[in-house]
Amino acid sequence: MGAAVTLKQNADFRRLYRRGKSIADPALVVYFAKNRAGICRIGITVSTKIGNAVERNRCKRIIRAAYRGLEAQLPAGYDFVFVARARTKRLKSTQVAAAMRAMLTKAGLLCR
């Protein structure tokens, strides 16, 4: 398993915000939509309201680690944008992974 393919273009993020489906949790919000690339791509956003740079980078690391744990179980051909919330910076990676698993299962993307 290599590094996750990341979304970098603002247009990709805007497309998911506008046309994608979303599921919210107190710790995290996920936007997702099918893509034509045939691979899963991931984008992570953390607002400057969350905290200083150290806390924002920690949020991104935790979200990335949680996604890596679920990546093999996801169907191919989806784009995901994970948006950190204020509570994310106080959570452990296992708690974020559990929240992510619950949201993706609710969306029908993960099998139990």
What is the element layout, followed by pairings?
Blueprint: E1 5-6, H1 10-19, E2 21-24, E3 28-34, E4 41-45, H2 53-70, E5 78-84, H3 93-106
Parallel strand pairs: 1-4, 4-5
Antiparallel strand pairs: 2-3, 3-5
Summary?
With 112 residues, this protein is of the alpha/beta class. It contains 3 helices and 5 strands, in the order E-H-E-E-E-H-E-H.
Could you explain the architecture of this structure?
By secondary structure, this protein is of the alpha/beta class. Helix content is 38%, strand content 22%. It is built from 3 helices and 5 strands, in the order βαβββαβα. The chain has helices spanning 10-19, 53-70, 93-106; strands spanning 5-6, 21-24, 28-34, 41-45, 78-84. Strands 1-4-5-3-2 form a 5-stranded mixed beta sheet, with helices on both faces. Helix 2 (53-70) links the parallel strand 4 (41-45) and strand 5 (78-84). Helix 2 (53-70) packs across helix 3 (93-106). The longest helix has 18 residues, at 53-70. It is globular. The model has no long low-confidence stretch (mean pLDDT 91).
> What percentage of the residues does DSSP assign to strands (E)?
15-25%
Q: What helical percentage do the residues reach?
A: 25-40%
Q: Which stretches are poorly predicted, pLDDT < 50 over at least 5 residues?
A: none
Number of helices: 3
SSE succession: EHEEEHEH
**Could you tell me how far the N terminus lies from the C terminus, measured between alpha carbons in angstroms?**
21 Å
Largest sheet: 5 strands, mixed
Strand order of the largest sheet: 1-4-5-3-2
Shape, please? globular
Structural class: alpha/beta
Mean pLDDT metric: 91
Radius of gyration: 13 Å
Can you count the beta strands? Answer: 5
